[in-house]
Amino acid sequence: MSFGYQVLGFGSGVTGAAIYAVDFLVIAGGGGGGDDRGAGGGAGGYRNSYASETSGGGGSTETDLSLTVGVQYTITIGGGGAGATSGNGTKGSDSSISGTGITTLTSEGGGYGGKTGAGGDGGSGGGMYLTGTVGSGTANQGYDGGNGKGGSLDSGGGGGAGEEGGTDGSPALEGGDGLSSSITGSAVNRGGGGGGHDHEPDGSSTTPSGGVGGGGTGSKNGLDPTAGSANTGGGGGAGQGDGSTQDGASGGSGIIILRMLTANYTGTTTGSPTVTTSGSDTILQFTGSGSYTA
Question: What's the predicted TM-score (pTM) here?
Answer without folding.
Answer: 0.93
